[in-house]
Design goal:
It is a single chain. By secondary structure, the chain is α/β, with parallel strands linked by helices. Helices cover 18% and strands 29% of the residues. It has 4 helices and 40 strands. Strands 8-11-14-17-20-25-28-31-34-37-39-40 form a 12-stranded mixed β-sheet. A hairpin with a 5-residue loop joins strand 22 (186-188) and strand 23.
């Protein structure tokens, strides 16, 4: 789809500096621009690319003054970065705009869905499922029994939503994610074996949650595993049965959270963090990447690092000594030799 510079300027409530009729059909980085593409300049470190780019249109801050004349048409806005972000959202909406049910879908007659829905081919939708308005379910998805999906959700290809899962409004679930699989519940028995414990709960996802590719969220043994409003999960995260994650917490890739742990709201958890089960993490806690959390963190706003993790200031001071250990060891040996020599001389 093509837009003129003036049409884009109207969307951004900006002002065109140059050819108002120039046609745009794609977006690009400023250094990789090409004819018909639109880019942006928000950081003046990249200004030199403005005079080299082949992009046809560049969004800049309202008060930006070029130092050379050989530049493409500009759109001046209050904030170039936010303006370009608006265009990215628009571009994504246009790209993802699909409506209707494709061939080879299997939709149970008891399933209900709202207007504006898209269901991609080879998707299976089980009985008593409810799907809201303007939901996009891309090909090769499985939607289990009694699943409830809210309005305006995007379910990317290859997602499995197993029975009784509840998804709120405006959620995005990326490819390969599995929500509602059995929790890791086994009880040891007298035969030195393990008996599987039935997992009969479900998973409840709040509104405006985004879940990265190949993330797994296990159903509760009893009750619900809960991911509350505004949570953002990266790729390849494991969330065990009966975990609860508070509003607007963000978690980076390859983190694993064991069963029944409760994480507060507005927390930030780095990549490859391991959190053992049955803990409580207070609101606003920040956990550095590759940390191991073996006990509850009860002080709101704490920042921790290490394995086992402890206060980040103490960790950094200790790390200075860790790095000096070889030199300290050599110094102690040298002192010991001198002390032995002194004692032997008496």
């Amino acid at each position: 789809m093509n837009f003129s510079a003036q049409e884009i300027s109207d969307i951004l409530k900006g002002e065109v500096d140059g050819d108002k009729d120039i046609s745009i059909f794609s977006l690009s980085k400023i250094e990789d621009g090409f004819k018909g593409s639109l880019s942006f300049l928000a950081n003046l470190k990249y200004e030199s690319f403005l005079y080299e780019t082949k992009a046809s249109l560049v969004v800049v801050d309202k008060d930006f003054i070029p130092t050379q004349k050989n530049h493409p048409t500009l759109i001046r806005v209050e904030n170039a970065y936010q303006g370009f972000s608006t265009l990215l959202d628009l571009y994504n909406d246009v790209k993802l705009e699909k409506v209707g049910i494709e061939n080879n879908c299997n939709i149970d007659s008891s399933a209900r869905y709202g207007e504006g829905i898209y269901i991609g081919s080879n998707t299976y939708i089980s009985e008593n499922t409810t799907i809201g308005k303007n939901v996009k379910i891309y090909p090769n998805c499985f939607i289990g029994k009694n699943v409830n999906i809210g309005d305006n959700c995007i379910i990317e290809p290859g997602v499995n939503l197993l029975s009784n899962t509840i998804i709120g409004d405006d959620c995005i679930i990326h490819s390969g994610t599995i929500i509602g699989s059995d929790g890791f519940g086994f009880a040891p028995n007298n035969e030195n074996d393990y008996k599987k414990v039935a997992q009969i709960g479900n998973v409840v996802i709040g509104n405006k949650v985004e879940i990265g590719a190949n993330t797994t969220i296990d159903r509760a043994t009893l009750g619900s595993t809960k991911i509350n409003d505004g949570v953002k999960l990266d790729n390849l995260i494991q969330i065990a049965h009966n975990v609860e994650i508070g509003e607007h917490t963000v978690i980076a890739a390859q983190t694993g959270i064991a069963g029944s742990t409760k994480i507060g709201k507005n927390c930030m958890i780095g990549g490859q963090v391991g959190i053992v089960g049955h803990l409580t993490i207070a609101d606003g806690v920040k956990i550095a990447a590759q940390s191991g959390i073996g006990s509850s963190i009860k002080v709101e706003g704490s920042i921790v690092q290490g394995s086992p993790a402890y206060n980040i200031g103490d960790y950094k001071r200790s790390y200075v000594y860790f790095r000096k250990l070889p030199n300290l060891y050599a110094s102690i040996n040298e002192i010991q030799k001198k002390l032995d020599k002194l004692l032997n001389s008496k």
